[in-house]
Design goal:
The protein is an alpha+beta fold. It folds into five domains: about 210 residues, 2-Layer Sandwich (Beta-Lactamase), CATH 3.30.450.20; about 35 residues; about 100 residues, no CATH class; about 230 residues, PPM-type phosphatase domain (Phosphatase 2c, domain 1, 4-Layer Sandwich); about 150 residues, Histidine kinase-like ATPase, C-terminal domain (Heat Shock Protein 90, 2-Layer Sandwich). Helices cover about 45% and strands about 20% of the residues. The chain has 21 helices and 30 strands. β6 and β7 form a beta hairpin. α2 crosses α3. The chain is extended. The two termini are about 85 Å apart. Keywords: Coiled coil, Hydrolase, Kinase, Membrane, Phosphoprotein, Transferase, Transmembrane, Transmembrane helix.
């Protein structure tokens, strides 16, 4: 690089750095000013907004004092009488609404239950949640500020305690509309104002058209002021988080103001400043370059002469106008140097050219060869190249050879000999490498085949895991209409499929059965074995007189066909909700634990038998224990007590008992969660070797709605057990004999709290006995109670709580010898024909169990394969679960109609619902079965299985209803 070029570059860089520094300082200064302006603007808006909210809430305090000092209303709240509170609160609410300050008035008890709502319905969610109510009650202090209710509506709210005799008995809520503060804020700031919730959705605003620019693009978590560009328009957007009375972010206050004119002026100023600085710099550099070029011209000519002399060109001369200057002295010195060098160059020129050609040829050939070799051979060739170059650099005097031709031939001989040896070595190395790579390719192909097999096995195990978990009860609470007890359960498999199981079911109106078990081994064999054991227990339980009799029969069935000698431990118990007595049988399972209300923990160790499936014909003892209201029982598998930490220490039973003793007052689901967390904390980083399964039952109170109830005489009607004539098995294929219509019921007056249309005739609630066979299908049998003479004949109604099937029995006959048993009439919820079955279910997941039973009976009655019932129930469960979970946007009752028609060997199933329009066969995502389960996106697998199990599927929208039709051939086939 020329000297003048370097000088010019240095000056250019210096000026550029100077301009860049000044520009950076100006930008930082402007950013600092903008930051101070933004902070001042945000602080001012925040203070003004808080003042507006505080003024709005203060206007509510006068009404709040009137409500808190109203003795009649306070006494009504203490009694928790919604009717009296309604009568007292309506005038108060009307007065506040007339003054225009209060838009909502609510009264709740200290537990957060809504006693009065100025909006009319007590079923609507309250403005404040239960946690806020608990905070007000505990602290006896009001909560004030902006709150957001369940409908995402913002209100200026004052929630204050209602006291009676120094004790907080309830909470009153006064709420004002936020539109007036927003309007005042807009007038003061000249900006458009918007209130948005935590997810950025608009709740209130002054200009919806402007909000569409920012919708879905603003985060409410952080206070900030920023400039937003929309096309050619600029907006100054300020975001202020909005906090509720508990200092939680519930949304944000967003202000937007048009600042296009200001931004345009700022942009013009920046462009003018940048243009001026750039022009000045260009002009300055141009003048400096011209000056350097003219100053260095004599030196350039001198350098040209020296370059010519270095190349051997002595014809180049330099005109020196002044012999005394530096250039003239350099020219004279160059002339003398040229005369002395010419002779030496002529002598060595020929020999040097020959040697250079030789070295270049050898180097190029060896470099080409080294490029085709591996790393080790390439290094050896380069070393040989260095040796040959050293030989070529030695002169004749150093080697003692005055004949230059002989020296050149020696160098060539060494070079060609070295290249020949290297090529021979590389050829042998390549042959060995090819043989080794061939063996490795065979091993790789075998590994790929093994991986494909493992992927297929993993996919099958994933599907088995989904089926197993879906077969266990997953909906909690399972019996929402029963408040005598609470029950919860959960399982964490150690492998893809687990060897544990749990279940619970109502045997009749006052008896609840619950069971837990653990099969020997892990994986698919254990899962299949426990599936059979669970199905047998659930089918035999309603037919057994005691848990011991039930497990004895199940053990015989499991032992009779058990070629792999699998077995399972089991704990099965039946709770009588009328007195809290529990009958149980333990088949080799860890003892269950009872957490008493006193905090003591009892272990049930009195009865223990052999595991199920070990030996046929064993008897099992039935034990009993008493549960008092408030007691909780915990059933668990050995995966809890035998969990190991990193040093192989067991969690063991004493540690579990100690942990359970600290959980007094916890709900069943909380007890299971706390125990599981304790086990995880103990295990730490150690892997899980066994399934962890727990079931917790809390007995809250005894049944008080005791009515006439004939407890069935349960006896197993299967091989090896005596039958009893008191149980009759219905033939579902036979047509029922005619039944005389019952007399018209006498209507009873409706209660005061219910509308007149809700009145119904008096009924007698009796639960039918369910008779099960060792394998599906299940046959329904009803034991008819002995009729008793009554003054006025009323229809007796048989009701099953879950599922809701109602069957009418004939009226009591006149005194006569031994009346014949009465058949069950068709229920109002279903319609039977020989080849047609129509069922109407409500939008309740519990109804799926009833529907599955009806499908099993319909398939069995027409002699179709059991696989048809399994596939159809799986498809109905998937489709109807989606309808109930996602098809309705309200909490109202809806009917879902299902129709089954058997025509010419094809079973057609039709599902009709009035939910939102949705085509599951086109809108559901297609699952990628090639991915691992953890990497696969959620959704689409259930609809995929429906398409696989059914021969044909169809969807249509008709008269505002979704109609899904499924076709399945009934011939015996693999699905």
């Amino acid at each position: 690089m020329l000297l003048r070029t370097r000088v010019t570059l240095i000056v250019t860089v210096s000026f550029s750095l100077l301009v860049a520094g000044l520009t950076f300082a100006a930008i930082k200064s402007e950013e600092l000013a903008d930051e101070r302006y933004a902070q001042a603007t945000l602080n001012g808006q925040d203070i003004f907004w808080r003042k507006l909210v505080e003024n709005t809430v203060q206007r509510l305090e006068t009404d709040a004092r009137a409500v808190a000092t109203d003795e009649s209303l306070v006494q009504a709240v203490e009694k928790r009488d919604p009717t009296q509170i309604l009568a007292l609160a309506v005038p108060i609410a009307d007065g506040m609404r007339a003054r225009g300050q209060v838009s909502r008035f609510e009264v709740m008890n200290r537990d957060g239950e809504l006693l009065y709502n100025s909006r009319g319905s007590l079923l609507e969610p309250p403005t404040v949640d239960a946690g806020t109510v608990r905070t007000i009650v505990d602290s006896n202090k009001s909560v004030r500020g902006v709150l957001q209710d369940a409908s995402r509506t913002f209100t200026a709210t004052l929630a204050f305690p209602i006291e009676h005799k120094g004790e907080v008995i309830g909470v009153a809520v006064l709420a004002a509309d936020m539109q007036p503060p927003l309007a005042e804020f807009k007038i003061s700031t000249g900006s458009e104002i918007f209130l948005v919730d935590r997810i950025g959705q608009l709740s209130l605003g002054t200009d919806d058209s402007i909000w569409k620019i920012f919708e879905g693009k603003i985060s409410v978590r952080k206070s900030r002021l920023e400039t937003w560009q929309q096309g050619e328009i600029f907006y100054s957007v300020a975001v202020l988080p909005v906090y509720d009375g508990a200092s939680r972010v519930i949304g944000a206050l967003v202000t937007a103001r048009d600042v296009t004119a200001t931004q345009t002026r700022q942009r013009q100023i920046r462009q003018i400043a940048i243009g001026s600085v750039g022009g000045f710099l260009v002009v300055l550099l141009a003048l400096f370059t011209v000056y350097l070029r003219r100053s260095f011209h004599p030196l350039d000519e001198a350098i040209a002469v020296l370059n010519a002399l270095s190349r051997g060109d002595t014809s180049v001369t330099l005109e020196v106008k002044n012999d005394q200057d530096e250039i003239g002295r350099i020219a004279g010195t160059v002339g003398v140097f040229r005369d002395n060098v010419v002779k030496l160059e002529l002598m060595q020129q020929r020999r040097e050219r020959q040697r250079r050609r030789q070295e270049l040829y050898i180097r190029l050939q060896m470099l080409k060869m080294s490029e085709m070799l591996e790393e080790e051979a390439r290094a050896a060739v380069l070393a040989d190249l260095k040796q040959i170059e050293a030989m070529a650099e030695r002169g004749p005097e150093e080697s003692g050879d005055t004949d230059s031709g002989k020296g050149e031939l020696e160098v060539l001989g060494v070079a060609f000999q070295t290249m020949s040896d290297r090529i021979r070595e590389q050829h042998l190395s390549l042959q060995e490498l090819i043989t080794q790579r061939t063996r490795e390719a065979e091993v790789l192909r075998e590994a790929l085949r093994t991986r494909e097999q493992l992927d297929a096995l993993r996919q099958e195990l994933d599907f088995a895991r989904e089926l197993q978990l879906s077969s266990l009860p997953q909906v909690f609470p399972p019996f929402p209409d029963r408040d005598e007890f609470r029950i919860h359960a959960g399982m964490v498999p150690a492998k893809e499929v687990g060897g544990d199981f749990y279940d619970f079911f109502l045997i009749d109106r006052y008896h609840l059965g619950f069971v837990i078990g653990d099969a020997s081994g892990k994986g698919v064999p254990a899962a299949m074995f426990i599936s059979i054991a669970r199905s047998l227990i659930k089918a035999v339980a309603p037919l057994s007189s005691s848990p011991g009799e039930c497990l004895a029969f199940v053990n015989t069935m499991l032992s009779a066909d058990n070629p792999h000698t699998l077995f399972a431990t089991c704990f099965y118990a039946v709770l009588d909700t009328r007195d809290g007595q529990v009958a149980y049988c333990n088949a080799g399972h860890p003892p269950s634990l009872i957490l008493r209300t006193s905090g003591e923990v009892d272990a049930i160790r009195d009865v223990s038998g052999v595991a199920l499936g070990v030996m046929e014909g064993l008897d099992y003892e039935t034990g009993t224990f008493q549960l008092n209201p408030g007691d909780t029982i915990l059933l668990y598998t050995d995966g809890v007590t035998e969990a190991q930490d990193v040093v192989s220490a067991l969690y063991d039973e004493p540690r579990l008992i100690e942990k359970l003793g600290t959980l007094g007052g916890y709900a069943p689901q909380d007890i299971i969660a706390e125990v599981h967390r304790a086990v995880e904390a103990f295990v730490g980083e150690a892997p899980q070797f066994d399934d962890i399964t727990m079931l917790s039952l809390s007995f809250d109170r005894v049944s008080t709605d005791l009515e006439a109830f004939d407890e069935p005489d349960r006896r197993l009607m299967l091989t090896g057990f005596k039958a009893t004539p008191s149980v009759e098995v219905m033939n579902m294929d036979a047509a029922p004999p005619p039944v005389a219509p019952p007399p018209a019921p006498t209507p009873a007056p409706p209660p005061a709290s219910q509308p007149a249309a809700a009145a119904a005739p008096a009924v007698k609630v009796i639960r039918p006995t369910i008779v099960a066979k060792p394998k599906p299908p299940v046959t329904v049998a009803i034991k008819k109670p002995e009729p008793a003479p009554q003054p006025a004949a009323k229809p007796a109604i048989r009701i099953i709580n879950k599922p809701k099937i109602v069957a009418a029995a004939p009226p009591p006959p006149a005194p006569a010898p031994a009346p014949a048993p009465a058949p069950v009439a068709a229920t109002p919820l279903q319609h039977h024909d020989h080849n047609v079955l129509k069922v109407a279910i409500s939008n309740d997941l519990a109804e799926l169990e009833r529907l599955a039973g009806l499908v099993d009976s319909f398939v069995e009655r027409h002699g179709m394969p059991e696989r048809i019932a399994f596939n159809l129930n799986l498809c109905l469960d998937e489709l109807i679960t989606n309808i109930i979970s996602y098809g309705y946007s309200d909490d109202q009752h809806h009917d879902i109609h299902v129709r089954f028609v058997l025509v010419n060997g094809t079973l057609m199933t039709e599902i009709i619902d009035d939910g939102a329009e949705y085509n599951p066969f086109t809108e559901a995502p297609e699952p990628d079965l090639a991915l691992e389960v953890d990497d696969r996106p959620i959704g689409g697998l259930g609809v995929f299985l429906v398409k696989e199990f059914m021969d044909k599927t169809e969807y249509r929208r008709e008269d505002g209803r979704n109609v899904v039709t499924l076709w399945k051939g009934t011939a015996e086939q693999e699905s």
